[in-house]
Amino acid sequence: MICYHIKMRKLISIVLVVVVGLVTLYFYGRFRQPKEVRKNTEKKVSPSLKQIDNTVTVSKSIFVPYWSINQESLDFSEYDEVIYFGIAPSRQGINRQEEGYIALEKFISSVSEVKKKYLTLRMIDDEINSFILNNKNIQKKIIDESLNILTEKGFSGLVLDLEISNILNKDITDQINVFVQTFYTTLNKDYRKFYLALYGDTFYRKRPFDLKHISRNSDGILIMAYDFHKSRGEPGPNFPYESGAKYQYNFKTMISDFLQFVPKEKLTVIYGMFGYNWLVDEKKRPIRQAEALSLNEIKKKFIMKCEFKNCIIKRDKISQETEINYIISSSTPDELNIYRIDYHIVWFEDEESVKVKTEYLKEQGIGSVSYWASGYF
Questions:
Q1: For residues 161 and 124, is the Cβ–Cβ distance under 8 A?
Q2: Do 287 and 279 touch, CB atoms closer than 8 A?
Q3: Which residue ranges make up each domain of the chain?
C-alpha cells in the first residue's frame, strides 16, 4: 500500500511538470510573436467601441412651423419624418381659432402621403399650462381632441412641447407625471406614438421633469439642444459642444445626463438652425434682448458678404459654433455731438457644428436627430 502511494505521488509530480512546461511554452511563443501580429490578433478579438458605433444609421426629421408654410408643396424628401408645429390648447380644449390650427390643412396638403407625419401640441403659455395641470377634466378633453385630430388628419403620433419655466417643484412634477401617463396610455391604445420635447438645459437648470417616469410613459424624448444662451441673457453659443474654461454646461454633458434615465434608442436630438444677434457695450454686456436670426438670414447678412465695419467671423473650437463681431457707426453726431458706435455679437449653429455633434451622438449609439426648423437653413 505504501509503495502504491509513492508511485502515485511520482506520477502526479510528472503530470504537473508536463502541464507547467506546456503553459510556459504557450506564453513564451505568444509574446515572442511580432508586435504587429499580436496587435492584429487583439483587434479581431475585441473591436473598439468607436468601430461598433460607426455602424449607427442616423434618421432625420424636421419641424415645420405654421408660420413657414406657403401655398406651394414643400420638399422634405431627405427627411424620414415631418413634425408639424403645431396646435395649442386653451382653457376650453384645443384652440381651433388659433393660427396653428388654422394652418393645419395647408400643412397636410404640403406633405407627401407616404411621409410619416407627427403633430406638436404647443403648451408654451405658463398660465394656461398651470390651469390645465390643475384640472383633470380639461386634460381629458385636450387628450381626446388631440387624438381625434391625429386620426382625422392621418398623423402617426404627437409631440408634446410642454414648456415649464418653474424650477424643480414636486407638486408640478407630480401633475406633469399624471398628465403624461394619461396622454401616453390614451394614444397607445389607438396605436399612435407619444413623444415629449424637453429643454436641453433640463438638468442644468433643474426643470421640474421626472425623466425616469416620463421615459417609461412615452415612446421617446426629443431634446431641444439649443437656446442655452438666452436672448435676454449673455451672448454665447446656441449649445456649446464642450465647456473648456468658457461655459458652465455643454452638449456632451447634456447627453450623458439624459442617458442616465432614457435609453439611447428613445432619444432624438433637435438642432436649432438659428442664432441670436446681441447689441452689447464695450465690455460685451447685453444692452437689450437679442434678435433671433435664421441660419439663412445669417448667411445672407454676414457669411456671403459682411458689409459692416470690423466684421470678424470665427469658429470657436470649444463650442464648435461660430461667433461674429461687428460694429455699426452713426454717420451723424447725436445731440451731444458724439458719433454713436453700436457693438454687436452674433452666435449661431450651422451644418458644420451639427456634423461634429452628430458624430458624437453616433459614438454614443444615438441615431435620431431633428432640425428646428423648415425654412431656417
A1: yes
A2: yes
A3: 2-46, 55-273+352-372, 279-348
Residues 6+ apart with CB under 8 A from 68: 373, 374, 375
CB 200 within 8 Å of CB 225: yes
- Most distant CA pair in the chain: distance in Å? 123
pLDDT at 180 over 70: yes
> CATH code for 55-273+352-372?
3.20.20.80
Model confidence at 71, in pLDDT bands (50, 70, 90)? Answer: low
Predicted pLDDT at 170: 85
- Binning pLDDT at 50, 70 and 90, where does residue 42 land? very low
Helix, strand, coil percentages for the chain (3-state, nearest 5): 40, 25, 35
Q: Give the confidence band of 339 by pLDDT, cuts at 50, 70, 90.
A: confident
What cell numbers appear for 118 in the block?
407627427
Using CA atoms of 184, 189, 193, 196 in order, give the dihedral in degrees to the nearest 10: -10
Stated pTM of the model:
0.84
Q: What is the 3-state secondary structure (H, E, C) of 129-172?
A: HHHHHCCHHHHHHHHHHHHHHHHHHCCCEEEEEECCCCCCCHHH
Cell of 338: 458724439
* Separation CA 191–CA 129 (nearest Å): 26
User: Using CA atoms, how far apart are residues 241 and 238, in angstroms rounded to an integer?
Assistant: 10
